[in-house]
Amino acid sequence: MPPAEPPRPQRGAQPLEGVRVLDFSQILMGPVATQMLADHGADVLKIERPGTGDIFRRAVVDFDKTEHPAFGSVNCSKRSLEIDVRSEGGRDLVYDLVRDADVVVNNYRAGVMERLGLGYGHLTRINPRIIYAQGTGFGTEGRYVEKGGQDILAQALTGAMSHKADDDHPTVIYPIALADYTAGMHMVAGILMALIQRDRTGRGQQVNVNLYDSLLAMQVLEASMRLMRDTELNWAKMPLVGTFAASDGEIVLVGAFKPNPLRDICKALDLEDLSQHPEYSSMPNQAAHRSQLQRILAEAISGFSTEEVMRRLEGEDVLCAPVRTLAEALADPHTTEMIAEVPREGLPPLRCVASPVHLSETPPSARRPPPRLGEGADEALAEYGIDPERIRDLREAGVLRGESEC
Hints:
Layout: E1 20-23, H1 29-39, E2 43-48, H2 56-59, H3 69-72, E3 78-82, H4 88-99, E4 103-106, H5 112-115, H6 120-126, E5 131-136, H7 151-157, H8 178-201, E6 206-210, H9 211-218, H10 220-229, E7 241-246, E8 249-254, H11 261-268, H12 283-288, H13 290-301, H14 306-315, E9 319-322, H15 326-331, E10 339-344, E11 347-353, H16 377-383, H17 388-396
Parallel strand pairs: 1-2, 1-4, 2-3, 4-5, 5-6
Antiparallel strand pairs: 7-8, 8-9, 10-11
Helix pairs in contact: 1-8, 8-9
């Protein structure tokens, strides 16, 4: 008889349940990392400056005078500690939290946390098991160490902004925070690897990521071609790749990964087989005559509706898609499971994009809405074993802000 199938595991605690994170980060790179950790069970406590908190709270204020949804989208399931870490009482409280924490996250410029007495060297002496994740713009050493880190600057300095579909096109800023999000995900990976290693050795370590390195890593294929062959690899410049206007919208076409994609495209568009012409008979020849070839395809595609040209191209197994707005993508039923709705007391639910990491037995979830400045502090401090009288004294001294929950 075949062996009995092992019992299917039951859904249990989320993977990072019990992992305590002290989050000094703000705006995007750090918060998007700690949001991923929180979505999968980590207890994240935002350490925020008195009066203002995370810069992103008030960078754009929503019509209802609360934090903008952009802030909320990367700060769900967290609690907030509004504290003056420059004061002796504030630093001492942070030191006590560090003793029971697993991870410290910040994305200040290099040297800021050290000047506050909160650098890795100091905190690892307090808790040798601490994992200290630092995100910067350009690293902790080198010629750009003092330069302010920002996504668009990283796009420019790493060459990411230089990639164009056509050399005649102007250089443009990519309007999505590529570097911030990528560096945030690299930070998550580093933290998880450090947690695994700590299980083996009992010691934490420092995790450093930065915008510059993350955008270079995104160009891994292009960089290798430049380093090894001194040639450009540019997917958008391939002769059968481009965006084309149909009669009622745009499509993107990727004529690649087939023995003779031009033949199949021509068949779909009721054109003669251009691959039989000498100037289009090979990929190098097609590249040499790219402009002329794309004009022929553009004229043919313009005579069809988006739906019709998609049907024709997909019928020949040619890669293509309609070019949509974000609003259209969010309205697609295919997107439904990626939209989270987080209840907020007295306000409409916060609607945002959910974690893209889908675990079958321990799915991610948003346990609470983004915190108001200082919200959840007393509860969190009690869980860290901080005495209520000490909390009261810190509030009276102005070190700890926010409304008492007791």
